[in-house]
Amino acid sequence: MPNPPPINTIVLSTKPQLDAIAAVLLLLLFGEKNYPGIRKAKMEFRKKLPAEKTASGLESQGILVIDLEISNFKKESSSIASQVAESLGVSKDPALARLLSFIEKNNDPATRSPDSADQAFGLAALTKDLTQEYPDNPQKIIDLVMPFLLAYYRSEKKRATAAPSKEKAIKNEEVVNAFDVFQGKKLIRVMIVKSNDPFSCDFLKNHADVKADVILQQLVSGNINIVTNPDRQVDLHDTIVMLRVSEARKKNVVLEISSLEELAKPNILAGVEEWHYDSTGNCIQNLTTSTKLSLAEIEKIIKTGLNPIVLSELCPKDHCLRESCDFFDYHLERCLPIQNKSR
Q1: Gap between the Cα atoms of 24 and 340, Å rounded
Q2: Containing structural domain, residue 339
Q3: Please, which domain of life does this record's source organism belong to (predicted)?
């Protein structure tokens, strides 16, 4: 089989879109064998090419065309990036899986996010905005967008490479406890790990043999993060309330709030700044000084907070003990029927 001709030029549309930019990144990362010299190839931009030109003819002259009418790589039934990945034999690379899926979904209106904010501030939309901001400088668009794609790929590669050793560590030492909790009809899988590894939570959420719904990660510093699997839509409302009230008790501070709803407010609550509630990411982070609560106390809070029917062990259920009950300060919705009986 003859050696492929060296490539010295990549030709793109004058309005490069995210799909085409991702395809070029794949060619720069993996295309040297199929397209020798492509890593050093210059980029040129055209609205269209002469009709008599062909993709194979241009390639024989060292020119590879992307996302133009005569190109072998243009939007059809699949994304340009997916076509390039397939041609280079890297379509099954785990480090590319989510990137290729993201590009594919953005190309299809049926699978694109219906959220207007996602549409406006997604990378594909921002790339399109850049074509209007720099209509005469398509190279600048490439230079601005490609680093984001490259950084994401490198992060995914690190995660994929770390998976085998991470699996061994998870099995051997990092997992402190694992248990299941019902939240309504959903069975929530909770795992507690002691690890400074930033990939531990992602691994536990995504590994086929684990599939944790909630991960409590304790760092060496003592700080604790509680992360959830977004697909499971875990309700953390009661958990953050119980953490904040319990922390206030430990610190012997009075929480100055104007309404009970503030106990579950997003971000920081004055007096218990240890606990940051990210309602968008659906996670709870112990960001500042480490919590005064022990890991055992937090585990108990999670077991109770996630399950909306669990009551205090002291609760007689036919009337409320009020201040004598350790649940009274939480003001949880589950307690209201019993509290109302005592009025």
Answers
A1: 65
A2: 313-343
A3: Bacteria
